[in-house]
Write a structure and sequence with these properties.
It is built from six helices and no strands. It has about 120 residues and is mainly α. The two termini are about 35 Å apart.
């Protein structure tokens, strides 16, 4: 959205409709609001209520590779499936511990994430 506002000409040359950008932003806001409405009855309201969700989102973004949108989406699906599998097999006691431990192990094996690329250093 910021790139379109600052300079719409290059964005238009990429065969993307510049006029749709604010609508997409509004649609994503509607989806975020709907998600908040759906999750609100499950939790009590308190000051650190989004901390765990934020940590999970950050872990998924790092796991998928910060530079790759498809990697982050795949990382989110993978994280959710692993979390559901651990909860179903071992119970909710170990879910957070094991999922974050698996993220640490995955990042030790692939430091740039699933689809991330290492930064190029020019000498």
């Amino acid at each position: 959205m910021l790139a379109v506002v600052q300079n719409p000409t290059p964005r238009a040359s990429w065969a993307s409709n510049v006029r749709r950008c604010p609508r997409r932003f509004a649609l994503s806001t509607v989806f975020a609001g709907a998600a908040g409405i759906l999750i609100a009855p499950l939790y009590n309201v308190h000051s650190d209520m989004g901390t765990l969700f934020g940590l999970k989102a950050f872990a998924v973004a790092i796991l998928g590779g910060i530079t790759s949108a498809w990697g982050v989406m795949l990382g989110g699906i993978l994280f959710g499936c692993v979390e559901a599998l651990i909860t179903a097999l071992l119970g909710s006691t170990y879910t957070q511990i094991l999922t974050f431990a698996l993220v640490i192990v995955a990042l030790a094996a692939m430091p740039n994430g699933l689809f991330g690329r290492a930064g190029v250093k020019k000498v």
